[in-house]
Design brief:
- Helix content is about 35%, strand content about 10%.
- It has 14 helices and ten strands.
- With about 425 residues, the chain is α+β, with helices and mostly antiparallel strands.
């Protein structure tokens, strides 16, 4: 024990034990100023005597090993402080490259800027074209930047929120998208449920609702879909107890098919399938009728200004009545009034009034305007005998044009603002 105590290293000033790696031989106790000052003085003398320790270039003060400027902090010498500040400012300022040292543009020969990374100045059209080509090549080499993956944001659900029979026990986390819930069934089962399933209503319990409704049919009286239900063109012929049952249905086309009850109730099954394919692209179904082209020609030359015969019919007041105009009701009335076509040589003639239009004589418009029926099937000879001369047609057109111009002039004169008449106070009173 005495041998171990004699081997301890002690301070040369106060005699307290010191560490074995203390090369100065004095302790660094700040509570004893004489020991601390003696340690600092001897440590400085040791650093000055050591040639490997860097020293200040001006005052010779020893520096720390991580000092890269080569000057002290200037606490004892103002000259060191000024030199240190000047050297730091010089290191911070970028070096200005003179124009003589800058590279030249390979296209026009002009000097490039110091921050030019493309290698072309871009001042002339040729330089700009070369700059665009170089940038295009550089973009092709690097390739498009990969899209930044953003973390999926999941909104928080506060604890105690009720979804069906489930009650959340904690706030929803941001990472895994699941939250711990407790079911309100007698068992009180706790489970982890996805937040999306809770919000959409896909999960409402721990599984007890599914077990309770396993053998229970839906709908009033235990029927999921009663007979006679209509979905589009389909009509159910029997009751469906459950949604996955196959039931017989009747389509409007007369075809009987089997459909799943759930598809019929949700409206995804609306027909037998064959009639839809057969009727695809049909509008009214009368385009193949033998009188359809005749009726369409009458309507077009009476109502369409782009028709070449419009000037002889619709422009001079020879129109078609509202009873024959609409489709398909007007066309069906036209077919019923005209009857079957006697032969291919017969066409529709305006008889007995060739100056009038195509009038059925029974619609509301014809009754209100007191128009008699003006139609018949006629041959070419009968058409020629009932045809008006060219001067009569021109005279009718001119008369109609004059009447329209007079009506417009009268309407414009009525719309003009009448001048205000000033009346004195005396005239107004007496």
């Amino acid at each position: 024990m005495n041998d171990a105590t004699s081997e301890l290293k002690r301070c040369a000033v106060c005699g307290d034990p010191i560490r074995d790696d203390n090369t100065v031989g004095i302790c660094t106790n700040r509570d004893k100023p004489e020991c601390f000052n003696a340690y600092a003085s001897k440590a400085r003398r040791n650093r000055l005597a050591d040639p490997s320790v860097p020293a200040c270039e001006i005052c010779g003060k020893p520096l720390s090993r991580n000092n890269q400027i080569g000057l002290c902090d200037g606490s004892d010498s103002p000259a060191c402080k000024q030199a240190r500040t000047a050297r730091r400012n010089a290191a911070r300022k970028p070096r200005v490259i003179p124009a003589s040292e800058r590279p030249a543009c390979p296209v026009c020969g002009g000097k490039l800027r110091a921050d030019n990374k493309v290698g072309v100045c871009g001042k002339t059209p040729a330089c700009r074209k070369e700059m665009a080509e170089r940038r295009r090549i550089a973009a092709r080499k690097t390739g498009p930047a990969a899209p930044r993956e953003r973390p999926r944001r999941i909104p928080a659900i506060p604890a105690g929120t009720v979804f069906g029979r489930l009650v959340t026990l904690e706030e929803s986390p941001k990472g895994d998208g699941k939250v711990r819930c407790r079911c309100q069934c007698p068992r009180g089962t706790e489970c982890l449920v996805l937040i999306g399933n809770l919000k959409s209503g896909a999960t409402k319990s721990c599984g007890c609702l599914k077990r309770e409704n396993a053998g229970r049919p839906k709908g009033p009286g235990g029927i999921y879909l009663p007979a006679g239900s209509v979905s589009g063109r389909l009509t159910t012929l029997e009751d469906a107890v459950k949604s996955h049952h196959m039931i017989r249905t009747l389509c409007q086309c007369g075809r009987k098919t089997g459909k799943v009850a759930q598809r019929v109730k949700l409206g995804t099954a609306k027909s037998c399938g064959q009639c839809v394919l057969r009727d695809a692209g049909r509008t009214h179904g009368f385009s193949g009728h033998p009188l359809y082209n005749i009726w369409r020609g009458i309507v077009r030359r009476c109502t369409d200004p782009a028709n070449r015969d419009y000037c002889k019919y619709g422009e001079i007041g020879r129109g078609i009545c509202s009873g024959w105009m609409t489709m398909p009701e007007g066309f069906l009335k036209f077919v019923a009034d005209m009857g079957p076509r006697p032969s291919r040589g017969h066409s529709v003639d305006r008889f007995p009034n060739n100056s009038g239009g195509y009038w059925c004589g029974r619609c509301e418009e014809c009754i209100r305007l007191r128009r008699p029926p003006n139609y018949r099937w006629a041959t070419k000879a009968e058409q020629a005998a009932n045809k008006g001369s060219a001067p009569e047609v021109i005279r009718e057109r001119d008369t109609l044009t004059a009447e329209l111009a007079e009506a417009r002039h009268l309407l414009a004169s009525r719309r003009r603002a009448r001048p205000a008449v000033r009346v004195s106070v005396q005239d107004a009173l007496f």
